[in-house]
Specification:
about 270 residues; alpha/beta; 8-stranded mixed beta sheet; globular; binds S-adenosyl-L-homocysteine
Amino acid sequence: MTAPARRFPLSLDRLPGVGKQPRAATPQAQLQRPQRPVREAAAAPPAPAVGQGLDSEAVRARMVERLRQLGVEDERVLAAMGAVPRHHFVDSALAAQAYEDTSLPIGWEQTISKPVVVARMIALLAAAPGARHRQVRRPLGRVLEVGTGCGYQAAVLAQLAVRVTSIERLSPLHAKSRDKLHALGLLDIRLLHGDGQLGHAPNAPYDSIISAAGGAHVAPAWLSQLGEGGRLVAPIVGADGAQQLIVIDKTPDGLRRHLHDGVHFVPLKSGVL
Ligand code: SAH
């Protein structure tokens, strides 16, 4: 069962203490002009202790250049990756590695995916045949993300989506991601605590469905909640235990499946904690 996050959507002016504190130097201050302007957080938590210059646009621009060299071509995806401060989503002890192309622990035995994997999966969604008919700057349309984790990928998706619904089964991560996203002013991402294998029917149909955790099967609820012209991208575990990305398009003639790169994601699990 998925249940709406408490107090969501939340308006900053109803947060306790907002307006009483001096404006903190938030990571948001370093955001490049994103396609969806990220609102400044009035009462953000202290900025993470990042190394010299690490939080600068230049460091993110270098990450974007590396993504380009690694074959990510979609400029909209590159701009979204350049707009979201990845260091804001990891513990300050790891902030120095935030713009390296590496996955990082986010607690509770979970990891934030490598930037190149996030970028490739989002580029696959944006390249769906159905995306041609969507708003140019919002090629992902209505998105369902399974596995909010620290909220980083949800923030990137929000740059290119009409609406993001994101589900996390671990309540501490659900709460933490909500705090992180709200501090960046990203209040309009629907964050849910629940088993993402059930999807979230009230917001269906989705144009894009993305899973950040790998299971043996594609959940039937995802396929029924995917709209026509929509695309699903998820890691799937094969008989040999290795994971591959699967891309499924819902066309008027039925479902079309393609297998892509080998990947390594945390397991998709049932139930909530
Ligand atoms: N997109 C995330 C990646 C998090 S790792 C980020 O940017 O940080 C994958 C996440 O999927 C983990 O937090 C894990 O708890 C979650 N997960 C695993 N199975 C799930 C399920 N059935 N429903 C919802 N979340 C799930």
